[in-house]
User: Which sequence fits this backbone?
């Protein structure tokens, strides 16, 4: 398991070997923006390819979309992003640093002050003297604006409280707050950088603004999309009309998104420009399912969720997609035990959302969201219907035929039941009856399940998981070590490296080039003829190349070559066709 310092080692490997660089590095970089180098862009492409194949090509019920980054600004009004897509931002009145109000304690835990206070508490043995000594000494440099550092009476009041408390029960956050507030009636949250007072949090919209056309005024303001999903809703009717899909079906998109994050941090984890892989999977409202199937399958029915079924309600569809997404994450090489499912509590959900599950990965900096799977009701399509005046309803022939078979009494009972349920959700009776009348005609606005993943976060998780510094002992008992990225072969940037055993034998060299040229047409391949074979292996291990092929004198006689496996380091002799069969098997999704 990687810790925070090994993240630094990974960061430097990524720079050294050409996975990830700071954007605009020669000008000092720009926070929250990262460039992917030769190996990084191959790896990123592999992740997207795998997602696309699994989510779109290998399914008959999902179509693809590639929409623009800048859309009509009305899209963002309808989606709610203009009014509510914000983070609470606060500023330190002393050092003027800006930060997210909900990340103050995370920043504290990660920086020098937090680390020092955590350590001092651990080592105190219940005695506050060392902690107070820190406040009088080193804290002047580390956290100069902390009230207990500036003001002797605050420190005295804090000391008294520390003596009256059991220090072994105290955590570093409480201690830091105590140094800011002891003896005072007003409570301030101290700045995690300098101890100064923070301003009241205020919402900060995360969308990047831009101007369309030559005139820079309000009318021409547009936004870089903060998510790829909205384009899918906006193009819903076009895709429906031009594909042969019927609900339930999905539309998927991979593309860049932009968020002006207040504090981009943790390497590429929270960037300002990043890529998302999003699927909007449209389903029938439960009421339509009930008319068609006579019942709605719920999770309490313990359904088999390996393949979709017409009788599923939204709850089962949501669970199905959570499972599909977990399978994909595992298929990319993250062991199931390395991520957890975090179910949003009701009070954490947006008003329209019915459920949301995050898949969280144990990054070196803590358990953090890798992707989210939300059940969003018909909110998004309905919003666009309302704001654009264009219908987002579908016509469902199966539903209309099923409704036709109901007699008048069952129709009336059904309408009463729906109205009753909607009343408990605070909706008008007339709305419910209108909705049911439309259902009987086979019409409704589809509901949606949204699995939404980040390419950059997935790549960071895969790199963290793959990284290993291995101690080895060779056949002669000599100790050695290697750095290896245990990447899934499909995800690895280079699939196979080809080495001629020696470079000064033209026949052997020529054969090796011939094999390399053959392989590179099919797989991302790497040619290396310099240095000892052992050194060449190590260079490939460090970038996660699953197979290394050495062409030697025997190859000239019988066509076999040595194929070395990255993880087991086992070496086998095989022919070119045997190698291709083995590789194809491992690389197929
Ligand atoms: P967070 O709570 O971490 O800000 P979020 O809940 O706002 O994430 P969503 O809006 O659900 O994220 O976006 C879906 C996915 O897009 C996330 O799970 C993540 O993988 C990715 N993502 C979101 N914001 C960023 C970012 N700033 N940098 C990199 N990836 C991101």
Assistant:
């Amino acid at each position: 398991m990687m810790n925070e310092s090994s993240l630094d080692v990974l960061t430097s490997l990524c720079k050294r070997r050409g996975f990830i660089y700071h954007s605009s590095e020669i000008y000092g970089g720009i926070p929250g923006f990262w460039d992917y180098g030769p190996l990084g862009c191959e790896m990123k492409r592999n992740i997207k390819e795998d997602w696309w194949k699994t989510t779109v090509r290998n399914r008959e019920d999902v179509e693809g979309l590639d929409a623009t980054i800048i859309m009509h600004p009305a899209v963002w009004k309808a989606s709610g992003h203009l009014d509510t897509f914000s983070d609470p931002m606060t500023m330190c009145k002393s050092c003027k640093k800006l930060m997210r109000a909900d990340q103050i304690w995370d920043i504290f835990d990660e920086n020098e002050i937090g680390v020092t206070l955590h350590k001092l508490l651990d080592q105190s043995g219940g005695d506050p003297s060392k902690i107070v000594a820190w406040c009088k000494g080193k804290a002047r440099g580390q956290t100069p604006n902390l009230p207990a550092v500036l003001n002797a009476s605050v420190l005295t009041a804090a000391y008294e409280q520390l003596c009256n408390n059991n220090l072994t029960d105290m955590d570093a956050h409480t201690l830091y707050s105590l140094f800011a507030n002891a003896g005072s009636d007003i409570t301030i949250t101290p700045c995690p950088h300098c101890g100064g007072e923070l301003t009241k949090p205020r919402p900060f919209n995360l969308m990047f603004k831009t101007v369309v056309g030559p005139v820079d005024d309000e009318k021409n303001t547009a936004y870089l999309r903060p998510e790829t999903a909205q384009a899918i809703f906006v193009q819903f009717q076009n895709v429906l009309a031009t594909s042969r899909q019927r609900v339930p079906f999905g539309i998927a998109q991979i593309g860049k998104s932009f968020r002006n994050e207040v504090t981009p941090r943790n390497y590429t984890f929270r960037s300002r420009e990043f890529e998302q892989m999003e699927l909007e999977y449209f389903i029938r409202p439960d009421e339509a399912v009930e008319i068609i199937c006579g019942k709605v399958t719920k999770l309490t029915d313990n359904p088999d969720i390996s393949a979709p079924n017409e009788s599923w309600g939204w709850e089962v569809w949501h669970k199905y997609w959570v499972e599909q997404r977990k399978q994909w994450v595992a298929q990319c090489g993250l062991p199931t035990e390395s991520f957890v499912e975090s179910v949003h509590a009701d009070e954490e959900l947006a008003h329209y959302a019915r459920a949301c599950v995050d898949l969280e990965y144990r990054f070196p900096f803590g358990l953090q969201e890798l992707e989210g799977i939300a059940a969003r009701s018909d909110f998004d399509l309905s919003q666009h219907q309302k704001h654009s005046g264009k219908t987002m309803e579908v016509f469902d022939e199966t539903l209309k035929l099923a409704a036709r078979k109901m007699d008048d009494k069952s129709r009336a009972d059904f309408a009463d039941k729906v109205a009753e349920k909607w009343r408990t959700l605070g909706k008008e009776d007339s709305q419910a009856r209108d909705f049911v009348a439309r259902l009987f005609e086979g019409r409704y606005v589809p509901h949606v399940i949204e699995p939404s993943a980040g390419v950059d976060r997935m790549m960071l998780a895969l790199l963290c998981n793959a990284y290993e510094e291995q101690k080895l002992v060779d056949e002669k008992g000599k100790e050695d070590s290697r750095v290896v990225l245990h990447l899934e072969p499909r995800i690895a940037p280079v699939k196979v490296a080809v080495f001629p055993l020696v470079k000064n034998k033209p026949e052997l060299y020529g054969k090796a080039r011939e094999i390399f040229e053959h392989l590179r047409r099919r797989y991302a391949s790497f040619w290396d003829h310099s240095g000892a074979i052992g050194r060449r292996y190590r260079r490939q291990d460090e970038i996660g190349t699953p197979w290394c092929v050495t062409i030697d004198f025997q190859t000239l006689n019988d066509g076999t070559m040595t194929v070395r496996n990255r993880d087991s380091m086992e070496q086998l002799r095989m022919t070119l066709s045997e190698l291709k069969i083995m590789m194809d098997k491992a690389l197929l999704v």
Notes: The chain has a mean pLDDT of 94. The pocket of adenosine-5'-triphosphate is lined by residues 227, 259, 261, 270-271, 274, 276, 369-372, 452-454, 456-457 (CB under 6 Å). The first strand starts at residue 20 and ends at 22. The chain has 24 helices and 23 strands.
